[in-house]
Amino acid sequence: MNRATKKTTALESTTGNTIIQAINASREYQLEGEIIYAVRSVNLDVEKGKFITLVGRSGSGKTTLLNMLAGLDHPTSGQVLFEGMDLSDYNEKQFIQLRRHRIGVVFQSFALLPLLSAYENVELPMRIAGIGAKERSSRTNEVLEMVGLGRRAKHRPYELSGGEQQRISIARAVAMRPDVILADEPTGELDSVNAAEIFGLFRHMVSEEGMSVVATTHDRTLIDMSDQIYIVNNGMLELTEVGLNDYDHSQFKKPVTVTESE
Ligand SMILES: Nc1ncnc2c1ncn2[C@@H]1O[C@H](COP(=O)(O)OP(=O)(O)O)[C@@H](O)[C@H]1O
Ligand SMILES: [Mg+2]
Questions:
Q1: What is the DSSP letter of 174?
Q2: Spacing, Cα 178 to ligand 1 middle (Å)
Q3: What angle do CA 169, 111, 175 make, to 5 degrees?
Q4: What are the tens digits of pLDDT across the range 150-193?
Q5: Please, what is the end-to-end C-alpha distance for the chain in angstroms?
Q6: What distance in angstroms lies between residue 227's CA and the mean position of ligand 2's atoms?
């Protein structure tokens, strides 16, 4: 792979509050002899305690960029740094630690374990991370309530709607209290009321807990809740507005749970 050969020593190019930094990050795919430029020379600073939305049409490069910010994929040129260290330089052990404690990912496909209940899906990563039983239980109950699914705790994913599964996958990420949550179209399966509540939950985690969130969306009605809005167009990033956020997170309410099946 034609990865960037330039090495960056820890903290070299990280300014105080930046947790993840993309520097001229590009990702190309070779497909049947054709080169697809999925992400082109993106520069992005994810700062502590900031909520960033990436808005763009399908195929614009959102998932590719988010995967690189998570270290799940690497740029073909340029770099992505986590606290100043190039994610391409992480060894397996360091990467596992990073994913276990620092970065939470909400996948577009939810990635829930089908044989586990909603409760167990949320609890498992905390168990793996060595969080004690009492703490696990209180956090699991708390986040399930936060996403409005306290009463669905015992259900398995196949007994839940797409939107409910999506909320479980968000609860699972939030429960870990990572430094950063990277969420790929986390409201893609939700109606507008629930989508707004999930963005409200992110807003709350950012404003009250100091977490950072990067969420992709194609729903423009939600973006005012974030601090920075970038348009992703043809693999390129364009900052549109900064500091727009006037959402009153003290008004945070849990999402509405549909009760028709009860
Ligand atoms: N594994 C892959 N191989 C080839 N092309 C890919 C691959 N993944 C994504 N692409 C292409 O890269 C571009 C950006 O895709 P993606 O990041 O999934 O966009 P979005 O998430 O905004 O819909 C698209 O043109 C897509 O077809
Ligand atoms: Mg996508």
A1: H
A2: 27
A3: 30
A4: 999 999 999 999 999 999 999 999 999 999 999 999 998 888 88
A5: 53
A6: 21
Query: Does residue 129 fall inside a structural domain?
Result: yes
Structural domain count of the chain = 1
**Each residue of 32-89: pLDDT tens digit?**
899 999 999 999 999 999 999 999 999 999 999 999 999 999 999 999 999 999 999 9
Q: Provide, rounded to the nearest whole percent, the portion of the chain with pLDDT above 70.
A: 86
Domain annotation covers residue 166: yes
- Dump pLDDT digits (tens) for 94-129: 999 999 999 999 998 899 999 999 999 999 999 999
- Does residue 235 sit within a domain? no
Q: For 87, which DSSP code?
A: G
Distance 9 CA to ligand 2 centre (A): 31
Closest ligand, as measured to the CA of 27: 1
Pair 167, 7: CB distance under 8 Å: no
- Residue 122 belongs to domain spanning: 113-177
Ligand 1 atom nearest to 57, measured from its CA: 22
Closest-approaching ligand to the CA atom of 60: 1
Helices (H), the chain: 62-69, 92-101, 118-128, 133-146, 162-175, 192-209
| Helix 133-146 × helix 162-175 angle, to 10° | 140
Decide if 20 contacts 69 (C-beta within 8 A): yes
Q: Is 46 helix (H, G, I), strand (E, B) or coil?
A: strand
Classify residue 173: in a domain, yes or no. yes
